[in-house]
Amino acid sequence: MASLQMLQLASPALPVGAFSYSEGLEWLVQKGKIIDEITMLSWLESELLRGQIRIEAAALKPIRKELELWKNEKLKAKEAVVDWNDWLLALRDATTIRLQQIQMGKSLLQLLADLNHPLPDNSKNFTWPIAWAWAGISLELSVTEMIQTYLYSWTANQLSASVRLVPIGPTKAQALQYQLSTLITKQSELLQEKSPHQIWTGDVGATMAQLSHTELYSRLFRS
After folding, report:
1. Which letter, b or e, does each residue of 148-168 get, where b requires 16 or more Cβ atoms within 10 Å of its Cβ?
2. Looking at the 3D structure of the chain, how many domains does it have?
3. Residue 186 predicted with pLDDT over 60
4. For a surface tag, which of 15, 60, 116, 205 has the fewest beta carbons within 10 Å of its beta carbon?
5. Which residues span the domain enclosing 167?
6. Residue 214: inside a domain
């Protein structure tokens, strides 16, 4: 059953608006930084190995722990969840990415509430990683499944955007997703054992692309 819940959570049909964001990919394509499947694969691998996405993935385990305490009526745990929420949001340099995290988090929490899995106080004002950790609890996923699905979903959304931007075509996009499966599995195992506060990032290029996206003359994706 858990595997079916993983599929539902990772589905591109999940109504959270992820399809409308490129997270700087559109800028990279327009500037000629990503031009084909080879450069696209290199970009995704570098983000999975050195990007901000790693900190968020590593934070899911401790966030889940606090959410479980909150669920069991440990009201002080909500303060810890809020702290995690604010810390992760502050790590994002681009206003556009912060707004994306807020919008997608609110949408997922609304969906979970509609599925009879609201947060203990039925609030919706939490970011994407918080909402994802709550989804992991609600859908009874293991920590490993929760982190794997988070990374898989991120790469799938980036590849979906690449089909419209590069373009590389859906078949090549599926081939890239398949190639990344081993790295996603290894990173999931590694990150659940690491403190997010001790993880370094080296994705200045991603930050610059995200900050520059609003300056494009024309855009397909939301800023």
Report:
1. bbbbbbbbbbbbbbbeebbeb
2. 1
3. yes
4. 116
5. 27-209
6. no
Alpha-carbon span 219 to 217, nearest angstrom: 7
The answer to whether the beta carbons of residues 131 and 17 sit under 8 Å apart is no
Is position 12 within any domain?
A: no
> Does pLDDT of 5 surpass 80?
yes
- The domain that holds 131 is classified in CATH as 1.10.4190.10
Does 4 fall in a domain? no
Side chain identity at 23, as an amino acid letter? E
What pLDDT is stored for residue 112 in this prediction?
Answer: 97
Tokens of 97: 């990415």
Contact residues for 89 (Cβ-Cβ < 8 A; gap 6+): 98, 101, 102, 127
Instruction: Return the DSSP state at 219.
Output: -
Asked whether residue 219 is assigned to any structural domain, the reply reads no
CA end-to-end distance (rounded Å), the chain = 37
The reported pTM is 0.95
